[in-house]
Amino acid sequence: MASHIEQCVASPHPIGTLWHPPTASPGAGLRVLLTQTGHAILYGSHGHRILCVDPGGTPLHECAWDDTGMGPKLLYARLYLDWGQWVGIKPEELVNVGNLDLSKKPGWQRLTTKDLQMMAAQALRVTPEEIAFFYDDQSMTLDAQGRVTIRHRKDALYILDDGSFAKPRFMACMGAMHWGHIDFLPVVELFQSLLPGTGSAVFELIRGLYDDQTVGEATRPLRYRGIPTYPSPQAFQLFSAYFVPEAPGGANPFPLFMDPSRSGEVIWKPRPDTPRRYLDFAQGVCVTVVGGAVQKVTKLNDPVAIPYTRRRKDGGAPGGRMVGTTPTTLQLQDGERLEEIPLRPEWGVTRTDPLPERPPASVPTWRVLFPEGIPLLDTKRAYCAVPLYPDDETMVDEVATLPLVVEHALENLDRLAAATTGAAAFKSVLIHNWDAVLAEFLDLAQDRNYTVLYTRPEFAQRQAQRVWDQAAATGTLANLRRIVFLDAALHQGAAYGKSYGLIYGCIPFEQYRQRTDCERQLSAVSKALAPQGASIMVGPLWLGEVCPRVSLRVRVADPVAETPGFRMHRAILPKARVNPDATLFLLEKM
Questions:
Q1: CA 460 to CA 466: how far, in whole Å?
Q2: Taking the complete model, does pTM exceed 0.90, yes or no?
Q3: Which structural domain range is residue 26 located in?
């Protein structure tokens, strides 16, 4: 296309200028759209979007299509995240297959696809239309022996470590999109495994394809659809960045959206002005602009791994990192630290929003949780601190296992506290090797002191930032002084020399067959527990046999594979396996 650009002609487009061969239609075939924001979109000879770049030529996303069938079929998409990582989408790459035997059901031979869809709708408590939307004739088949095969197709999201699909790492999945005709907003499953910025990059692509497909047409309202849906404030906020929500009768759409049974009643229409990204490698930033205002700035090569965002109505921002704008500069504030970067005219920033005076030193940042200094991390390691789950039979690793049991662990602990005087003894808490879920255990509303021993610094940093956000939202920043994060390799011995009312511990998988090491760890837990103290432990099943010898009573011993969290996980990834020996214990000091 570049070699023939001088031979192309320009045609007006609603969002810019379209360059195309003089003999071709402006709306079909090979062409380039230069938008009013300076971004360029390249369309292939088949007419579909294949590349979007920012004004500096940095690719934001690319698509590969198969147009040999009945309609355009997306083969894959690559998306560039603000901080420099590529992720990918492969449509319908994940197919969960289930079987149902109807051979004993009278008249099964006469069942049609519509009958099967009706049965599924009744079982799942959704409308037959919703079932038909996600399960076509090829998704539900009945064989001559009365066996029904159900295929649930999902789009898979991957981390592309080298930028290609040569060795993709599974990250998450979502409802199979109709990429050639965007007609709904998808449910994303395993969203906690998404690398930061993935959601925005995916919706940047969805909105881009939606715009391509609706040029010159009436607005096509979309709905949030899935079986089931998982509405959340985060999903609502993400959708709202690209589409405007409307509820029937002009009601507030947020409460309606948050009701899983009614989420689909909210309709989403295209927002006039959507987020636009600009990569500036010279200044080391990715700037996101909406309506002439800077919404977010991500610093490249930043091990803190939190973008600078516009202040909320309450004056705060995630991680305490805020961006402001003057007529000539970007202001990047992180606690007492303030950095200024010159504005580029190509970013199209027309609205200023200067930051107020810097907060006093008495206002703690998340760094206060690390008395010996924050971990030394590289950018990729810091951003990649998310639990990842295999999409095949590969066993879930240790760090990703703990999020599957954390809710069950807390429920068991609450029951123990309600049945005993245990809660009164939980004034001092030790948390060891639960790095991926630390924020779940740190209750700033309670009068408790917490000692955290971490073994994975990138996860500890991410969790410390989450704890700070929770404290800022609840006005309990002063209580951060009760929490200390320490490197387990340096402080384990000293930490276990103190007394605690509650200890969370996790024995590494690699030690499960080393009985002496496991027993030594359990003995250390028992010695550190105060009278009437309790412990949540994850370890090998045989550990329960040792407990009485070290003055610990086993209240609960649930195999991780049988916990509600893992059962829910297998509903998403049926092939999932966890360590068969891993057991969740609730222990009490005898």
A1: 10
A2: yes
A3: 9-92+153-220
